[in-house]
Design goal:
It is a single chain. By secondary structure, the chain is of the alpha/beta class. The protein is about 35% helix and about 25% strand. A hairpin with a 2-residue loop joins β11 and β12. Bound molecules: zinc ion and fe (iii) ion.
Length: about 260
């Protein structure tokens, strides 16, 4: 399975998945249809699946037009998103499996950003290869999504599921927010050497207009404060010893950053 990054709107990423034969494709969170259709035409592939992570417009905006062009396409989303995702035909829950080409995604229910948010996790195709995580607006490179429809406790539980995935897992998040996130992260975790190194790398990439996606679970565990609610230095930074309160205070500070 190949993953192609398609930039969309101001800072979204759409992910086009193609099988090894490149004849069928799936798309994750099509913010808009046009760039997806252009890419499909370029490789001569048929769209068989739309994988939506949640109902926000910058993740489903292309659904209708893609369905018009490919009436047989299967539209997947979270069960709790029923009625909020155009064309949804499959209502997924934690532990469900979805096949694409020779790979199968496992569904993780990760509410917090929205109450229905799901992730698609493709375990490694063979030993020594990385798995692929499509996590929408829940986990970002250096950050996490805002809590629009969930509580800090829910989000910590959801992020804990992602944190348990293998370190090598590639994290395909839906926005290019990395530089701004890391600028905030340095204010709460200024002694973190891995974070400083990462900031320099990301700054250089952005100066060259390069994408910072995908990240990996391993990198996020080392540098992302929103996966580090149990680290003493972060608890000290927000004056708490409680993991959920630590997370909540970090999230509140980021909201005002
Ligand atoms: Zn969103
Ligand atoms: Fe979004």
């Amino acid at each position: 399975m190949q993953v192609t990054l398609i930039p969309a709107l101001s800072d979204n990423y759409i992910f086009l998945l193609t099988d090894s034969g490149q004849k069928i494709a799936a798309v994750v969170d099509p913010a808009e249809a046009k760039p997806v259709l252009r890419q499909l035409q370029a490789i001569g592939a048929k769209l068989v699946a739309i994988f939506n992570t949640h109902h926000h417009h910058d993740h489903i905006g292309g659904n209708r037009q893609l369905i018009q062009e490919f009436p047989d396409v299967w539209v997947y989303g979270g069960a709790e998103d029923e009625g909020r995702i155009p064309g949804q035909r499959v209502f997924l829950q934690e532990g469900d499996r979805v096949a694409f080409g020779d790979r199968t995604a496992e569904i993780l229910f990760i509410p917090g950003h929205t109450r229905a948010h799901i992730a698609y996790y493709f375990p490694p195709a063979s030993e020594g290869e990385p798995g692929d995580l499509f996590c929408g607006d829940t986990l970002f490179a250096g950050g996490c999504g805002r809590l629009f429809e969930g509580t800090p406790a829910q989000m910590v539980n959801s992020l804990s599921k992602l944190r348990r995935l293998p370190d090598s897992t590639r994290v395909w998040c839906a926005h290019e927010y990395t530089l701004k996130n890391l600028q905030f992260d340095l204010t709460v975790d200024p002694q973190n050497q891995n974070l400083k190194t990462r900031f320099a790398q990301v700054k250089a990439s952005r100066d060259r207009h390069q994408s910072t996606i995908p990240s990996t679970i391993g990198i996020e565990k080392q540098t992302n404060p929103f996966l580090r609610w149990d680290m003493p230095e972060l608890q000290a930074a927000v004056n708490s010893q409680d993991p959920i309160q630590t997370f909540a205070r970090l999230r509140g500070m980021k909201d005002r950053f």
